[in-house]
Write a structure and sequence with these properties.
alpha+beta, 4-stranded antiparallel beta sheet, 7 helices, 4 strands, binds adenosine-5'-diphosphate, binds magnesium ion
């Protein structure tokens, strides 16, 4: 399996509770390298653009409000099979269904305030990384 990159967000529920380091420890322990990282506050337009794929879903408005309710830490993670591996490390969308040891099981508050985002495919990872980082900001 080739080395690949995925896009990650530590969401406002986690940054508010000072969990950035604890989540990064789980990421690194899983063998993923944080090759880019910055703490930012998204605008409404940025959050709407990022989650545009969900704009017809009933939770879209709430999700956008949540994602701009505090800082987020955006990251590029690198490693073998990084996209699928990070989905495993995150756990299920709803923390009630997440496996023990996953980030969402350990830290998430609810199906919405679920602490982390990870790309769902290699194609989306490329798009999401490009929306959030310049090439010069990613140092492998
Ligand atoms: P994932 O983040 O696991 O890929 P989705 O792409 O389906 O999940 O949803 C994007 C985000 O929208 C979720 O991480 C969560 O924050 C929020 N979300 C998903 N489903 C719901 C729901 N039923 N109610 C509220 N928020 C939701
Ligand atoms: Mg998703």
């Amino acid at each position: 399996m080739a080395i690949e990159r995925t896009f990650s967000i530590i969401k406002p529920d986690a940054t508010k509770r000072n969990l950035t380091g604890a989540i990064n420890a789980v990421i690194e322990k899983a063998g993923l390298r944080i090759v880019a990282q910055k703490r930012v506050k998204w605008s409404n337009a940025q959050a709407e653009a990022f989650y545009g794929v969900h704009k017809e879903r009933p939770f879209f408005k709430d999700l956008v409000s949540f994602m701009i309710s505090g800082p987020v830490v955006v990251q590029v993670l690198e490693g073998e099979n990084a996209v699928a591996k990070y989905r495993d490390v995150m756990g299920a969308t709803n923390p009630a269904n997440a496996a023990p040891g996953t980030i969402r099981k350990e830290f998430a508050e609810s199906i919405e305030a679920n602490s982390v985002h990870g790309s769902d495919s290699a194609d989306n990872a490329k798009i999401e990384i490009g929306q959030n980082f310049t090439d010069a900001e990613i140092v492998g």
